[in-house]
Amino acid sequence: MTRPRAARRPLLAGTAVAALALVAACGGAGDDGPSAPATSAASPATSAPVPPSPTPSPSASAGDGTAADDAEADAAAPAFGSTGDADPSAGASLTVTGLRLGTHPGYDRVVVDLGGTGTPGWTVQRTPTAVEDPTGDTVDLGGAGVLTLYLTGLGYPFETGVEELTPGTRTPAGTVVTGAEFSGTFEGQTQVFLGLTDPEAPYRVFVLQDPLRVVVDVQRSTA
User: Which fold has domain 60-219?
Assistant: First the structure.
């Protein structure tokens, strides 16, 4: 069957236009007039915006997590076996903001960072297991015993205006301390559990200022 002529017309028309454009281009190449300046097809390079640095979040750390505290803490630390309790200052309203563990020659150091007003109180108990108040849930820290640090003079974040460390945050293990965990705030106090390889390991507790933190050192057996 013969293809209709009408179907070839667009192709012929396009060929004619292309030929005319070629002739015009050839004529322009011999023109003595000034030529238009060449332009680059490449777009100017632009640098990608640099994202802002993230705001540090409350966290737990280990290894050298207490290094910044060591010089001041060692100067202020009482002797091991100093296990006396302390009362919070009047009107104390504090929030736990961090939990850190550092391993040092002869002992592990756990630091609880606090923000808000006043100074905390504390008491410490040795227990075979870690039991959260008020849920009764058991926390497994993998040790042979538990040292429970009760901090008092605390408030909820909406009362103190300070962001709280996420309840359940746990540090990695040290040497005598198998890990420490923050349980959260309830009725003006909190628990920080320290798992121990030695349930009777000597310890000491004291407070440091600027920034405010409570330090618990647990001595490693020298036997």
Answer: Immunoglobulin-like (2.60.40)
